[in-house]
Design a protein that fits this description.
The structure is a homodimer of 173-residue chains.
Chain A (H helix, E strand, L loop, with lengths): L4 H13 L23 H19 L7 H12 L5 H8 L3 H13 L3 E5 L7 E5 L1 H26 L1 H17 L1
Antiparallel strand pairs in A: 1-2
Chain B binds a DNA duplex (23 and 23 nucleotides) through helix 5.
DNA sequence: TATTGTTATACTCTATAACTATA
DNA sequence: TATAGTTATAGAGTATAACAATA
């Protein structure tokens, strides 16, 4: 059974009659009810992620680095001598999409590609000196502005618990 | 100071010499080190969110609903008589992008638009009977398969704590 | 034959400007 | 003049197929 045209019209009329109470024409925008939405973990996860990325972008704006670019630089620092496929896979980036991303970083002289000597198909990746310097500055901004704010909001213990649960979901779910 | 061509070549050679130890040509793919990445809240947040959405999609696949569509139906159920702008704003969807989304739901007879009687610019939104039925089935799938799995992984207390922190970040960060 | 980096391509999300009809 | 819904459009992000060089 589907809703009838008449029922639709009635509902539309109802919204009119219920309306004018607060004082003739007072932009009366009562907040909506989230209902079960506020119990949906995925929903809060997404909204929180957007907020955190937005703040990251803002905090690290002077260096013009996105979260994805920052993650690449971090990974290159800790894993010198790896090729594109290895870095991309670790970050969940598809190899074709990683090409343009690297082009961007390399054109800014933050990292470099070098043909591997033992497998000439591979491009060994490494940070440049400028890449290391920018990464160092980025880490400081992230720690002192971004993560510090999160710590302030949640408290160190809660922040650690949150990170632990998120990591668990990312790994085991 | 930038890294020299020679340094780059040296690093490439180094990766060769360090290489063959485990047993001549044994796809030796030692796992990469995440380093500071595992302490970056935003990184875990993103990876966890992707996992959760993927599972949601899978659990609710029989009904062909995305997380975003599910959130719209939930909101319509709890807030009948609201217009497109109000629903879209609440979900953080831009009005122009909400049009195609509604077209999809309406073409499947899950919800309906009706011109408001007091403001003929507005489209009052409401669930159809079919929309209510599909939403009811979706809720059951989400609760019994999706959220149940998360509860199993984290435990009820941790799950509640996680939700509380995510909500706090989404609201106050 | 298989793999690495790459190109081309397509599809989804997100974002902004501007139009129309109403107010 | 301002607002609701809409269109057009552009840019990210993500996905797959296929090609050249190399193994």
């Amino acid at each position: 059974m589907t809703v009838s045209k008449a029922a639709v019209v009635d509902a539309a009329k109802a919204s009119r009659t219920v309306r004018k109470e607060p004082a003739e024409e007072a932009t009366e925008t009562s907040p909506l009810h989230l209902g079960e939405l506020s119990e949906l973990l995925g929903y809060s996860l997404k909204r929180a992620q957007l907020k955190v990325f937005e703040d990251f972008l803002h905090c690290v704006a002077p260096l013009q680095l996105t979260p994805a670019q920052f993650s690449v630089l971090l990974l290159l620092e800790k894993n010198p001598g790896r090729n594109q496929t290895e870095i991309a896979n670790t970050l969940g980036i598809l190899r074709p999409n990683f090409v343009a991303m690297l082009d961007g970083l390399e054109s800014r002289d933050l990292c470099a590609r070098a043909r591997s000597a033992n497998d000439r198909r591979s491009h060994i990746l490494m940070l440049t000196d400028k890449g290391r310097a920018v990464l160092a500055r980025a880490k400081k901004l992230v720690a002192s502005k971004h993560e510090a704010r999160l710590n302030e909001l949640l408290g160190p213990a809660n922040r650690a618990a949150l990170l632990s649960m998120l990591t668990k979901i990312a790994r085991e779910f």
